[in-house]
Design a protein that fits this description.
7-stranded mixed beta sheet, 6-stranded mixed beta sheet, 452 residues
């Protein structure tokens, strides 16, 4: 999901998964990894990183596929989320022991040495099972293409959102006639909203939770607001750093102001921010994966993309995508079954959307069933305003870029480093990373074929 640690996934996601599974009448545990059809002609080995709430949904979707396709046995394995997953997947591909199908964050695909550790998708075979390029956002599809070949099949978009308590905002006069938060188009307007919301908030509660000490979340928020300003990272050839320290300073000052003006209490960092929201805090910035938790708690809330405080709509987005880990003998019935399975799950993403994700398969978004989902239908516009990390080998969820630059953003937000100084450090770090070689293939970003 892009969460910073596995414990948090289990704590929030477990509750949400049970609630989501129950709402669709699914068995929460499903049949899982041991469900192999006795009369199946073909077996597909599938590795994923979906623990917690999204894990329950994935199991339900796999069980539905098994029922509809008894000739294919799906052997699914859920591995530890984050770097351990990618390390094991890379080792399996290098040692010719890779599964037939896998899942990755789309931002990590470029660094996974496409063509060496990943095999390209057969777009003709995908079309046979009902999945075509026209069914996806052009920008999303382009991110999945490396050197002219499709190396990832997007399943979803998961985004950072501004969750808000309708009961508190109504008291503060901040709800429109449609029952949603009043529009915000500038930083000044945003802080005016926070000021009024604070007046309507019970004592002992902060106004907004924003994961102020977490390097992943602070990095994601930075990416969103820097994109709103039109900021860039590198030139097209990936040889020069184009990072704008002036724009970066603006973003860092904006993030820092939440603390200096008394709206965010660093003492309520991490999960405490979510707890505060459940207890009546008016705002929390969080990933869409928290939707099942807040809905399950019967909180009267809404969720929108991060506010366009710099005039342009943009909220941080990542995507889960199906990949084909490299196999020296890939092909035949097993490879076709892997395409069939991935296409099925992508096309039946209405179930996946219940966990908060925006389905990548756009026909799903036009259905009455999806439009009836709340608050999912409120933030679906994030599909058209994605702020993503640059397409380089060291980017992507929990990647080296976040590990190196994220702590610098935290230092600025928390006040141990001045925004201007932090912006310069960020540019220096980007320069260093651009010159680094990908340990998977020994090539720099400029040599890595990272353009679509």
């Amino acid at each position: 999901m892009g969460r910073p640690d596995l414990n948090r996934r289990q704590l929030l996601g477990g509750l949400g998964g049970l609630l989501v599974a129950g709402s669709f009448g699914f068995a929460a545990l499903g049949t899982g990894a041991d469900a192999l059809a006795a009369d199946a002609d073909t077996r597909v080995r599938y590795w994923n990183l979906f623990s917690g709430g999204d894990g329950y949904n994935m199991i339900a979707m796999l069980d539905a596929f098994r029922k509809a396709n008894p000739d294919i046995a799906v052997k699914d394995s859920t591995l530890q989320w984050g770097s351990p997953f990618y390390t094991k997947l890379a080792m399996a591909a290098a040692g010719n022991r890779a599964p037939d199908l896998g899942v990755m964050h789309l931002g990590r695909v470029t660094g996974f040495s496409p063509g060496r550790f990943l095999d390209p998708w057969d777009v003709g075979l995908l079309a046979k099972y009902g999945v075509r390029e026209a069914d996806f956002s052009p920008a999303l599809w382009k991110r999945a293409v490396v050197d002219g070949k499709l190396y990832a099949l997007p399943l979803d978009i998961h985004v950072q959102l501004c969750f808000y308590r309708k009961d508190v905002l109504k008291k503060a006069g901040l709800l429109g006639d449609d029952g949603r938060i009043v529009p915000v188009t500038s930083a000044d307007e945003w802080f005016d909203v926070l000021k009024e919301a604070k007046k309507a908030t019970r004592k002992g509660l902060q106004t907004i939770g924003m994961w102020s000490t977490d390097q992943n979340f602070q990095w994601w928020f930075f990416v969103a607001f820097y994109t709103q300003l039109g900021g860039t990272w590198f030139d097209a050839a990936r040889t020069e750093v184009t990072f704008d320290t002036g724009k970066a300073t603006q973003v860092l000052q904006f993030l820092r102001r939440h603390i200096t003006d008394g709206y965010c209490d660093p003492g309520f960092a991490g999960l405490a921010g979510a707890e505060q929201f459940l207890n009546g805090s008016p705002f929390v910035w969080e990933g869409n994966w928290s939707v099942p938790v807040y809905s399950g708690a019967e909180v009267d809330y809404g969720a929108t993309p991060l506010p366009p405080v710099f005039g342009k709509q943009a909220t941080h987005a990542e995507s889960h995508a199906f990949v084909l880990p490299h196999q020296s003998d890939r092909g035949g019935a097993t490879n076709e079954a892997a395409h069939r399975l991935a296409a099925y799950v992508v096309r039946h993403a209405r179930q996946w959307a219940a966990g908060g994700h925006i389905p990548a398969y756009t026909p799903t978004l036009a259905t009455a069933a999806y439009k009836a989902l709340n608050p999912q239908s409120e933030y679906v516009s994030a599909m058209d305003h994605q702020a993503t990390e640059p397409k380089v080998w060291f980017a992507g969820s929990t990647g080296i870029l976040a590990q190196r630059v994220g702590p610098i953003v935290v230092a600025s937000t928390m006040g141990s480093t001045k925004p201007e100084t932090a912006a310069r450090r960020m540019k220096s770090t980007l320069t260093q990373l651009l010159a680094m070689k990908n340990p998977m293939d020994g090539r720099t970003a400029a040599q890595g074929g990272a353009t679509a």
